[in-house]
Amino acid sequence: MSDVANTAAQVAGPDLSVILIDISVLTMMAITAIAIARLRSLFALVMLSGVYSLLSATWFVIADAVDVAFTEAAVGAGISSALILGAMLLTVRVAKEDKPLKRIAPMLVVVITGAILFYATIDLPGFGDPNSPANSYLAQEFLQRNYGDIGIPNVVTSVLASYRGFDTFGEVGVVFIAGVAVALLLGFGERSLSASLKKKKGGEK
Amino acid sequence: MTLLSVAAVGIFVSIALLLIRLFVGPSLYDRVLAVNSVGTKIVVLLALVGFMMGRPDFLDIALLYALINFVTTIAILKFFRYRSFQISLIKPEVEPKGEAE
User: Fold this and answer.
1) For B4-44, what is each residue's pLDDT tens digit?
2) How many angstroms separate the Cα of A200 from the Cα of each of A1, A196, B6, B101?
């Protein structure tokens, strides 16, 4: 986690105070995650996951991934906590206490995955490194020709909406289907929809 | 710059206090209020970070977060008042034509 801050220091991009803010935000995220794992009250879990999303969105903004941060704030903190609340209504309010022995296997999986990810960060180029492969070849090309090709000043928008237009279209479709499926499962708005349809019919007659 | 840093430290301390309230908060409303306040603190934090990094355009993002935060709080509270999202907060006007069926 502090790896990002460390590499940021190497590239001499953001100054010390920003790195400290990075570390504090990440620490709070870690504390929230531990609390999510420990707490049993489902309502508290929903609230905590909302806070976790907000904190991670903040971190994304500080790491200059503003579009990801927007998605995280809107989906993670906004709609998903509302959806989980709706799902909570269908089940009990307090999670069952699980046996201590049962926690060992998930713990092992998490620790091993975390260790592998940490190992993988050794090979990563520094944060915002202009000489990293991601920034040097294709990105430069796109930055230069994007305006001539498409005429949208924002490079991210032009890539998402034009170069990868079909991909984004498919994504929108997938997200829409997922939303419809969740709405069907939770019985969301079913009654109000039929009621409004009835009203419309009556109005037209 | 030092002023901004001190303000950021203060914000972090207050977020930590709110997190504690979120963990131990006995009642539901403590937790809703804590989440709402964390959202507000994060808005301020984003504004501070924007000025620290020399990018005041983070203010726009902070404003958007304030909006999302507000809507979420309203949604949660409405949900716990009515147990449903379908009831509108404004009383609908009675339409005799629609009820005719």
Assistant:
1) 888 988 999 999 999 998 888 788 888 889 989 999 999 99
2) 55, 6, 58, 11
* Domain extent listing, chain B: 2-86
- Tokens in use for B69? 């935060």
Instruction: Using alpha carbons, select from B28, B61, B24 the residue that is nearest to residue B44.
Output: B61
Q: What is the pLDDT of residues B38-83, one digit of tens each?
A: 999 999 998 988 888 888 888 888 888 888 888 888 888 887 777 6
Structure tokens at A51: 């806070």
Q: Is the dihedral of CA A180, A182, A183, A184 positive or negative?
A: positive
Q: How far is CA A179 from CA A50, A186, B69, in A?
A: 19, 11, 21
Q: Which ipTM was obtained for this model?
A: 0.81
- Asked whether the beta carbons of residue A81 and residue B32 sit closer than 8 angstroms, the reply is no
Single-letter amino acid, residue B54 = G
CA dist list (Å): B33 to A150, A176, B36, B70, B89? 46, 32, 5, 11, 20
Instruction: Kindly report the length of chain A.
Output: 205
| Best to test chain A binding among B30, B35, B74 (most A CBs inside 10 Å) | B35
Q: Does B21 touch chain A (CB under 8 A)?
A: no
Domains of chain A plus CATH, in order, are 1-128 (1.20.120.1200), 137-205 (no CATH)
Q: What angle do CA A33, B58, A21 make, to 5 degrees?
A: 40
CA–CA min distance B1, chain A (Å): 9
Highest mean pLDDT pick, A132-141, A184-193, B78-87, B89-98: A132-141
